[in-house]
Design goal:
mainly alpha, Proton glutamate symport protein
Length: 430
């Protein structure tokens, strides 16, 4: 019996969760269980590497084939302005949702005072953190505000081959691909035909390779999730349950209310139909916690299931995986204000407005890889003069993985909503 791909991934998620809980309850430091988790981590890592392996050839061939294949610059500037405008507005809405939710619920407060239990948990969790977690936060703590201005430098990498070997340089690769495609359209018709045909063929090959890799998605998802459940367990989430619930509630509001309203009343598309079209990409985004790694599947779902043209999808989605981070910006806002509440720091309207602006700007510079938002959170905490920033972020890192998975799914859904909305505005039959 043929089981649909999204159901295979869901079954893998459920089995991985159950086995992770079982292994955690019976482990008792067992070497055998440790070896099982090591093998699982290795297999999951292979799956992630396979997904990342196809990002560069897929993005380059898709962008060039999609833009150059239309034979000109007509409407290209309009498409770019619509895309950037949508991404700015959707991210702003996400940050406002996060700001409203964290101020309404006040997860860092108890009976109107800073929650001392959580504050003590910050110190205890920071002390118990692994050396790798401490090193990750220490590296993030070295970043300065000026580092995020480097996003503009990344648009024009000095070495395009070096950029192609680094998925964190995806924006520069997209800009180069766009310039290359535009240049092709300026060549005489006879000269550009062979070049366009080459990139179309490469794109078709990469789509086929993507399908092959996705055939292994259930195994990859299982291998990625089981060690996470085994390592995390429920203990930390009990201590920081209010914070965890606030982030999930805010992310859920944006994903299931804000963006569907945009789809319904701006794009004129059924939100339920769009959820069905994107379910495979959303499940993969949740499993991998990486917008970049999910990009090949996002592009396939948007084009094959949602009916968006290659021209629109090849421009909006790679750009969105780089600069459109609704879930990340929302999470940054909630995390910063939560830490301020726990530390007893009262943030006025002006300071919170600054946090909104900073979350908007830093979310653009955050790479589409797991836990990259820690850099932005630390930066906002430092610029807001909130004490105990490093200790708090080390503690947040302990519960970050599941939240990272959730906000990545929101990021991907926001990108897909942009593609559909812009496609409809361009007169496409979606």
């Amino acid at each position: 019996m043929k089981i649909k791909a999204h159901w295979q991934i869901i079954i893998a998620l459920v089995l991985a969760t159950l086995l992770g809980v079982v292994f955690r309850s019976v482990a008792n430091g067992s070497d055998a269980v440790g070896q099982v988790m090591a093998v699982s981590t290795f297999v999951g890592g292979l799956f992630m590497q396979a997904l990342k392996m196809i990002i560069v050839p897929l993005v380059v061939s898709s962008v060039i084939a999609g833009i150059a294949g239309l034979g000109g610059m007509e409407g290209f500037g309009r498409l770019g302005l619509k895309t950037l405008g949508f991404y700015f507005i959707s991210t702003l809405l996400a940050v406002i949702v996060g700001l409203a939710m964290v101020n309404l619920i006040q997860p860092g407060m108890e009976d109107g005072a800073p929650n001392q239990v959580i504050r003590d948990a910050f110190t205890a969790q920071a002390a118990d953190a692994s050396d790798a977690e401490k090193a990750k936060v220490a590296a993030a703590d070295q970043k300065e505000a000026g580092d995020f201005a480097g996003i503009f430098k990344k648009m024009f990498p000095p070495n395009i081959f070096a950029a192609a070997s680094d998925n964190g340089q995806l924006l520069g690769l997209i800009v180069f691909s766009l310039l290359f495609a535009i240049a092709i359209t300026q060549l005489p018709q006879g000269d550009m035909g062979g070049l366009i045909g080459f990139f179309k063929a490469v794109n078709d090959v990469m789509i086929l390779v993507t399908k092959w890799i996705m055939a292994m998605a259930p195994l990859g998802v299982f291998a990625l999730i089981m060690p996470v459940i085994y390592k995390t367990g429920p203990e930390l989430f009990v201590k920081m349950g209010s914070y965890f619930a606030t982030v999930l509630l805010a992310l859920g509001f944006h994903m299931f209310i804000t963006l569907p309203l945009v789809l319904k009343f701006v794009a004129g598309v059924s939100p339920l139909a769009h959820f069905r079209a994107m379910r495979e990409a959303l499940l993969l985004a949740f499993s991998t916690a990486s917008s970049s790694a999910t990009l090949p599947v996002t592009m396939r779902c948007v084009q094959d299931n949602a009916g968006v043209s290659k021209r629109t999808a090849s421009f909006t989605l790679p750009l969105g995986a780089t600069v459109n981070m609704d879930g990340t910006a929302l999470y940054e806002c909630v995390a910063v204000i939560f830490v301020a509440q726990v530390m007893g720091v009262t943030l006025g309207i002006g300071t919170q407005a600054m946090i909104v602006v900073t979350a908007l700007l830093t979310s653009v510079g955050v790479a589409g890889v797991p836990s990259a938002s820690l850099v932005a959170i630390l930066l906002i905490l430092k610029t807001s003069n909130i004490e105990g920033a490093t200790t708090a972020v080390v503690a947040l890192l302990a519960v970050d993985r599941l939240l990272d998975m959730s906000r990545t799914a929101v990021n991907i859904f926001g990108d897909s909503c942009a593609a559909v909305t812009i496609a409809k505005s361009e007169g496409e039959q979606v």
